[in-house]
Amino acid sequence: MTIWLDGPGVTVADVVAVARHGDAVELTDAAVERMRAARAIVDELAEGEPKYGISTGFGALATVSIPPERRQALQHALIRSHAAGMGEPVEDEVVRAMVMLRVRTLALGNSGARPLVAEAMVAMLNAHISPVVHEYGSLGASGDLAPLAHCALALLGEGDVHVAGERMPAADALRAAGLAPIELAEKEGLSLTNGTDGILGMLCLAVHDAAQLVDEADMIAAMTVEALLATDQPFAADLQDLRPHPGQATSAANLRAMLAGSPVVASHATDDPRVQDAYSIRCTPSVHGAVRDTLDHVRGVVGNELAAAIDNPMVLPDGRVESCGNFHGAPVGFAADFLAIALAEIGSIAERRMDRMLDRTRSHGLTPFLADEAGVDSGLMIGHYTAASMVAENKRLAVPASVDSYPTSGMQEDHVSMAWNAARKLRTVIANVRRILAVEYVIASRAIDLRAPLEPAAATGALVGLLREVVAGPGPDRFLAPELQRAEHLLVADRLRQHLP
After folding, report:
1. What are the residues facing 321 on neighbouring strands?
2. What is the pLDDT of residue 48?
3. Strand intervals (E) in 300-360
4. Which of 125, 127, 140, 420 is a plausible cystine mate for 177, CB 3.0–4.6 Å?
5. Across the strands, what pairs with 2?
6. How confident is the model at residue 406 (pLDDT cuts 50, 70, 90)?
7. Is the distance from CB of 124 to CB of 154 less than 8 angstroms?
8. Is there a contact between 356 and 280 (Cβ–Cβ < 8 Å)?
9. Architecture of domain 2-195 in this structure
């Protein structure tokens, strides 16, 4: 597929397609014309009084006027000095999202960069050249300066890039792809670095992944309901309607659909001495639903940011070039922190559910730790340990990054968002939650098998069958790590949701 970049109209799905699946990108004619018009304004102002980013230094050096013959050197010096990241390289999908989203802002025509700059970035994307961007360097204002500078450095034929997983000098990768380095003109160094594109790219990928996770969490929780001989009565629509949160209604509906016609649930519908199930079962729609509502809020923030022009200064159609604060990452930083908090609770409640399945005093007839020969075999005991370790890490990662700030640039940039850090830890939370759910999936599947001859519902039974394609059923202890990893791969590949009624 080809994603056409017109500036406005970019969606989360577009970002995922380019960043994760390698789809091609092209600029529309309208986008090129907007960029040309904005560039004409910059060229005219370059001949007049000093204007920030066009004929002056940057940050605390904004009062230094730069003569015309040194302005190209100024832009190149900006990129080289700002490419100051350290630590491990971030994932190529994040870098591709970042480059695509920077092109999106340039295409809006408020940055004043020439079309050839955006076209060079598009060519780099389509050649699958991913600049090496490091873990540390962004404070989330003025945008993702260091990460974006590393991306811009590759356009100059400098720094390192990844091509098909191999690290090499950018100059060699450009040459092999038939591309040439570019020379930057006034304002273009700023236009390439003053954006929240890394933060936004990670948040777009997180929104996509979180939407998948909350569905998978509902489905796996339904399996646990059967595994624990719990009841589906608290999920009834009329009970859920008494607390009209949209996400709660959706999660409850998923649980009802997954458990429809369940012989396991029907087997104890009468004469069950238990009055009610534990909170981790009964309150699943409330918790999962609250995550869904948080995700909807974050989607709104992402939609606004995908429609925004993020740069400084901004070039306006009436000829003004004005400084602003649109590069501040607070909106996306808050959203990333909020989503991390919510998703951590998916893992937390899942861990409580799996603990009940493994504890013979609370599992209502299951063997200790679902072991084949308790004592000789440990069953799935340590799988739960693994999940618990990630739940603990998620609690630490749920502490907001966006409440912190370190003034920089001689106190000119005296409040920053730390949104890059918020987005980075959100990615770790998502990976951890997926693994936690994979452990619950393995435990619940074995517990359902051990309820035989009782049969699960059609939908939950299909999930057990899906897992059994790659993970064997109950039996003596065996090497567990590969089985947990195979379950995780099913979640990554989005194999479960095809069985959601």
Report:
1. 315
2. 66
3. 314-315, 321-322
4. 127
5. 24
6. confident
7. yes
8. yes
9. Orthogonal Bundle (1.10)
Among residues 194, 205, 80, the alpha carbon closest in space to that of 139 is found at: 194
The phi and psi torsions of 451 (rounded to 5 degrees) equal -85, -5
Overall average pLDDT of the 371-390 stretch:
97
* CA of residue 156 relative to chain centroid, distance: 29
Mean per-residue pLDDT over the chain, rounded: 94
Plot region of 269 (φ>0 → left; ψ -120 to 50 → alpha; else → beta)? alpha
Sign of the dihedral through C-alpha 192, 167, 203, 19: positive
Q: Using CA atoms, how far apart are residues 267 and 271, in angstroms rounded to an integer?
A: 10
Higher pLDDT, 21 or 8: 21
Give dist(CA 417, CA 426) in Å, integer.
15
Domain 202-308+334-499: which CATH number of 1.20.1440.230, 1.20.200.10, 3.30.70.330, 1.10.510.10: 1.20.200.10
Segments in 10-70 forming alpha helices (H): 12-19, 29-45
Three-state DSSP at 474 gives coil
Domain boundaries, given as residue ranges, for the chain: 2-195, 202-308+334-499
Q: Give residue 242's identity as a one-letter amino acid code.
A: L
Whether the per-residue pLDDT at 167 is higher than 80: the answer is yes
* Poorest-pLDDT segment among 317-321, 338-342, 443-447, 481-485: 317-321
Residues 87-107 have a mean pLDDT of 97
Residues 285-340 have pLDDT tens digits of 999 999 999 999 999 999 999 999 999 889 999 988 888 888 899 999 999 999 99
In total, the chain counts a number of residues equal to: 501
Please check whether residue 415 is in contact with residue 407, taking contact to mean a CB–CB distance below 8 angstroms. yes
Q: Rounded to whole angstroms, how far apart are CA atoms 204 and 427?
A: 11
Helix (H, G, I), strand (E, B) or coil at 89: strand
pLDDT above 70 for 62: no
CA-based R_g, the chain, Å: 26
So what's the pLDDT on residue 140? 87
Write down the pLDDT at residue 391. 98
Task: Please give the structure tokens belonging to residue 365.
Answer: 């007839």
Long-range contacts of the stretch 307-312 (C-beta < 8 A, 24+)? 307/8, 308/105, 309/105, 309/108, 309/110, 309/111, 310/105, 310/143, 310/194, 310/195, 310/196, 310/197, 311/105, 311/110, 311/111, 311/190, 311/191, 311/194, 311/195, 312/53, 312/142, 312/190, 312/194
Residues annotated catalytic, as ranges: 52
Shortest CA distance to 273 belongs to which of 353, 352, 364? 364
